[in-house]
Sequence to fold (193 residues):
Amino acid sequence: LCEFNKLRRSKILFVALFGIVMILVIVAAQGFYAGGDTVYGMEPEWFLTGVQSLGTMYAIPGIIALFGCYVFCREMQEDTLKSLQIIPIDIPAMLLSKILLVLILFLSAFIVEAILHVQVLSVGLFGRYLTMYCVEGLSVFIATLPVICIVIKTGQDYWMGLLIAEIYSFITIFVGNLGTVSKLYPIIAALTL
Fold:
């Protein structure tokens, strides 16, 4: 609740929601572009998989880095980190609240998938994709943690975290073709996991 109130006062929440909407729109546009006789967007689970892979590769690292840098930088700038350490707060819960964005992305993608293919949805499918999105969200958070730490340590603006993370995730395109060595690149390792 504290994290949500902090984010609600800034424009960062709107940037993240805009990023989520853009992921959904781009994946839908790609899925419903008729290349030949097949429209991929009409295949069951295609939307959930497309949002998961394209979002993870291009948008989620930047948004997580922006959120992480903003939240941690603000805690250090406003000196609230000391207060958080004094009061009994659940640190793992606080960290998990910082990656809540992935859950919002999953629920948005699942709602679109439900609209398109309600007949194939099941509790098992929901659980499988929820697990996949959560593990990947945690993995991407860990993969972008060095970017967040560098921005915080150098005292840069939190928007710099977004820029660095986007470059970091864009490099995935070139590293992905290096065979087995590419599995060591953090974003690709998150996708592989």
